[in-house]
Amino acid sequence: MANYYPPVGFHFKVEFEGISADGADTRFQNISGINASVPNSETYQEGGENRFTHRLPQRASYENLVLKRGMLLNSNLIDWFRDALEYFKFSPRDITVTLMNAEHFPLEQWMFYKAWPTKWNTEGFDAEKSGLIIETVEFSYQYFERKAISKTTLT
Question: Which terminus, N or C, of the chain has the lesser number of Cβ atoms within 10 Å?
C-alpha cells in the first residue's frame, strides 16, 4: 500500500448497450453526476422507548448522468436522443463507465441500468471564440452499481 497512487480522472471510457464502442460516440471529455444518496429517513416511535425515536433509511436517490464531448455529426447516440425527445419513443439501455489505469487496464466500473435520454444541449455558438462546439447529453436511470475489477483481470 506504500506505493499506492490514486487513479487519474482523465483516463476513462463509456459504453452504451446497442451502440458500437469502436466509434467516436463513446468518447467524452467530461462525466459528472455519478452520485447517490439516501436523502430521506422515516421515523418510528417504539412503545416504551422514550429516549429516542428510531430513524430508518428510505430509498436511494440518484442524480442524472451528464456526459460532455465535442459535437458529432451522424451520431447513433444523438439518434437515440432524437427518438426519445422528438418521437417520445424511449428504449432504455445500460451504460458502463470504466476508469482505466496508465496501462489501459480497467480499475473500476460504474454500471447505470435502464438509462434513457432526458436532455441534450450545446453550449452555444460564438463568432468571437475559436473553441469547439460542446454538446452535453444527460441521462436518467433506475440505479447504478460500482464494481471493482478483480486483480486477476489486471495480470
Answer: N
Give the dihedral of Cα atoms 107, 145, 115, 64; nearest 10 deg: -90
Tens digit of pLDDT at every position of the chain (155 positions): 566 677 888 889 999 998 877 778 888 999 999 999 998 889 999 888 889 999 988 888 999 999 999 998 888 898 998 999 899 999 999 999 999 988 888 999 999 999 999 999 988 888 888 888 999 999 999 999 999 886 644 44
Q: Which residues contact 96 (CB under 8 A, 6 or more apart)?
A: 14, 15, 109, 110, 111, 112
CA–CA distance, 83 with 108 (Å, rounded to integer): 31
DSSP 17: T
CB 73 within 8 A of CB 23: no
Architecture, CATH, for domain 12-154? Roll (2.30)
Q: Cell numbers of 18, please? A: 446497442
CA 4 to chain centre: 26
8 Å CB contact between 65 and 31: yes
User: How far is Cα 94 from Cα 77, in angstroms, rounded to an integer?
Assistant: 13
Is pTM beyond 0.85? Reply is no
